[in-house]
Amino acid sequence: MDVDIPEETNVEAATRIRPRWGRILVWVGLLTLLGILAWALIRNRQGPVSIGSQVPDFTLTTFEGENIKLSDLKGKVVVLNFWASWCKPCEEEAADLEAAWRHYQPRGDVVFLGVDYVDTEPEARAYLEKFDITYTNGPDLGTRISQAFRITGVPETYTIDQEGLLRHMQFGPFPNLESILKVVDPLLSQ
Amino acid sequence: MSMLTKNSVIKLIYLLLILLAASLLANGAALAQEPDPATITDDQVNAIAKQLYCPVCENIPLDVCGTQACAQWRELIRLKLSQGQSEAEIKAYFVAQYGDRVLAAPPARGLNWLLYVIPPLAILGGVYILYRAYKTWKQPAPQVTQPKPVAASSDEYVARIEEELRKR
Predict the structure, then answer these.
(1) Which residues of B touch A (CB under 8 A)?
(2) A93: which of A9, A65, A132, B87 is 20 to 30 A away, CA to CA?
(3) Following DSSP, what letter does each residue of A107-147 receive, concatenated?
(4) For a pLDDT cut of 90, what percent of chain A falls above it?
(5) pTM score
(6) What CA–CA distance (Å, rounded) separates A135 from A113?
(7) Is the ipTM of this complex over 0.95?
């Protein structure tokens, strides 16, 4: 018994199959785009580095041209301060940070690092001279360090212990010298 | 003796004149090398500043941003222009210092290339969809196929039923 397939059915089947690869391509493209967008959004919403976690390693090129790698400072407490010459609240803590550095400097197991965020070099150097800052400072080249720490503004200070773990975050200026000592001293007695 | 003195005085005057000319030339050369930011106009600064964005105040071009950080950046552009640096050199300096994100038009590398590829692709896709839709609208409506008349049955029994049905 011969079954006579109508001609329309063949044509319909052909039109159904033909654009399938195009549709798949469009869907793959759209899903890829959505994936990238979701990844970017999640990354932006991650927030700053959390207390107790390993801080990202970085290299700070100082204003004198010396390279300082954070991982080379293991075994020491690192006080990492983000600042800028255009930042008025940074001026409030500048003298206290310098005083704290001079307090710990003879011990040799505490390092202060100043990261100059989105600043211009002449003004940054004038700022360091104005507040007589003697601890190591350098520009945040390419804003790489501030992005790694996902800072929310300046001033911000991150205190890192001898194992490279983040132990304290200070958003805004330290109110006085005692508040800095209160953060660093417990780490030295460990 | 008086002749000697006169000659000596003339020589001394020549020597002084030479020294004076040399010092003037030296000063002139030093002045020519000294950059003077005051000679750079705001328009010259803003022509570069409008292509840059300070990360502190996102989405505001540097030429119209009112923060102190941006004012410092504009002064730095002025200083670099007065030192004879070109627009490309100044932009390269800012990228090296603060990263790609300071540029109004990000360079087409890494994920950035998507910014340049997706819009033309989306436009082409839209044009294709419109073209397909236009073609569909232009096509005549499909003919409604009439059911084929049922061939007269040779079956006597069926023929009789049909006749009976027609009568009712």
Answers:
(1) 54-56, 67-69, 72-73, 75-76, 79, 95-99, 101, 111, 114, 118, 125
(2) A65
(3) TSSEEEEEEE-S--HHHHHHHHHHTT--SEEEE-GGGHHHH
(4) 73
(5) 0.68
(6) 7
(7) no
